Amino acid sequence: MNNDTNDNHWLTRPETIKKLWWAFSIVLALTVLAQAFIYVKGYFAVDGWFGFGAVFGFLSCLAMVVFAKLLGYVLKRGEDYYASGDDNA
Amino acid sequence: MPEWMSPALLMVAGALFIAFTRGHLRTLFVLGTPLLTLWAIWQVPDGVVATVGFLDYTIEPVEGSPVRRLFATIFALMAFAGGLYAFRQAKWYELSAAFVYASGAIGVSFAGDLITLFLFWELMALFSTVIVWCGGTPAARAAGIRYAIMHLLGGVILKVGIEGVVIHTGSIDVQPMLATNFDTWMILIGILINAAAPPVSAWLADSYPESSPTGSVFLSAFTTKTAVLALILLFPGEPVLVSVGLFMIMYGIIMALLENDIRRILAYSIVNQVGFMVCAVGIGTQMALNGAASHAFAHILYKALLFMSAGAVIYRTGLHRCTDLGGLFRTMPITAICGIIGALAISGFPLTSGFTTKTMISQAAADESLMFVYFMLAAASAGVFLHAGIKFPWFVFFQKDSGLRPKDAPWNMSVSMVLVSALCILLGVFPNLLYDLLPYPVEYVPYTAGKVLFYLQLLLFSGLAFFLLLPLMKRTETISLDWDWIWRVVLFRSASAIYSGAAKLGTALTANVSKGLEALRGKAETVFGSKLGRDGTFARAWSIGTTALWIAVLLTGYVLFYFI
């Protein structure tokens, strides 16, 4: 990610990033496993299922990112799109 | 202070003093006026405080109630935080305009009648336009004009609605109503334009990012949240607001995901957050209205914090695109940490103000068994983390190393950011500080183990989704078309086409008509020959005597015919 030889900030070193991924994975696993001990009240049945929050969160984000990506093909324009059109700017 | 005087007028006075003083004295007015106003706000008792006769109407310039005081409080607090953030960097006219703008918001908060509400409403429109213009670039000037047109149009629609209600009901009181006829629909539409509801939502993302680094902090706070208050006061439980709100929520997320401009990302997330509040007002239960009010309060703080963080970056680097930024955490740690706190708060992470207020709205949806709404809100909470919670800090402060090593924010900006960050956490840890100020008694417990776990799962797995899907979210140097494409391109081109068509038609007509006249003249000349022209019969000058003789003859003829 980083080719700047002057830059050796500990946060950007590959080994740190690897460690961060490990830590993040463990936290993710814990938040799901904790549901075995903590009762999550479901208001509409399904939202009380084991790991529902995790799956729902992940899938909604996936859906939104993919939708945005597809919409981007239709909506994205060059930065001077308006400048060449109606603006006097 | 006289009873009829709205605390808003203190802010107007402050704005005048800011304009006419300089140096430390001005600083004193910038920081002192909001605090004095805050004190005045808390002196306003419940109910109509005073009335003033105007024409045949009874004007109620100041009416107190918990929700009105709550909004006025956050507006005054924001004027203070914004003033502290801006006073060393912003131009005096920007500060002065910002204070009049804030006074408009406070005036609307206490408006007991629709006429007062309208006056302060327009005051906001005028002076927020000035703040957009303070961006100082040609783009800011153009965006400011578009902003002004939209808000003046919204004002006209609101005014039409108010006139209708006044004529048909005879009451100018600010009181709950439903959109059942033309008048009330006009009022609702006028308010929703200020709330950045579709299809005119584009004004917000168009104008706010063009303002100065300090101006956007003020802009983010007042207009849309005043609209939320107006909805709470006028349209609680209006069913159409639920769908409008849900649309705004999703629209904000998707558009923010497509954006490359850091302040435009935040602008779209205002629409998203206001969507939560609009939806809550639509649900309309006590829990929902409490949720809308408290979320507005919390939102103003963390959204201003995010704009402060973005503003500090723009102030120091002059850059505003994700593709140009990155790696700034090295030299701007305070800005980065405050930005991250704002990002966590907007995502509704436990222990931040977003969690204690947004979950109230979800709870209200669950209590009313609105399953679709509930799941949309949950998905949106995940989406907020995606588009604002991680995307903003990641692309600005981490991502790649852009090679930029700017200094951290100036001290006054830093102090203001730290102060607002502290408030975001304070309201997250001690939610009762805010709950006690809400319009209805709160029986809601935000921190139950199950709820915290559910939201942690939701948010952390959204985080996972973000990092796994990063390749799909690679920033491109593009802008995205929004609703404003309809008027900036389609309407503009149609108007241009009609104009040039009319011009062509005009030229063609003129040519044909003059050709026709020419032909006629030619014909006349051949028929009448020498009689036309300068020396012809028709152009001959007659002496006065001859004329008098002719008149005498004509009159004689007339008299004769009269008697016969």
Provide structural commentary.
The complex is a heterodimer of chains A (89) and B (564). Chain A is flat, with a radius of gyration of 22 Å. The longest helix of chain A has 24 residues, at 52-75. By secondary structure, chain A is mainly alpha-helical. Chain A has helices at residues 14-33, 52-75; one strand at 76-78. Chain A has two domains: 1-38, no CATH class; 39-89, no CATH class. Chain A is built from two helices and one strand, in the order H-H-E. Chain A starts with 13 loop residues before the first helix and ends in an 11-residue tail after the last strand. Chain B is mainly alpha-helical. Chain B has three domains: 1-235, no CATH class; 236-476, no CATH class; 488-563, no CATH class. Chain B contains 21 helices and three strands. In chain B, strands 1-2 form a two-stranded antiparallel ribbon. In chain B, helix 5 (114-133) packs antiparallel against helix 6 (138-169). Chain B is elongated and about 115 Å long. The termini of chain B are far apart. At the A-B interface, helix 1, helix 2 and strand 1 of A face helix 6, helix 11, helix 16, helix 19 and strand 3 of B.
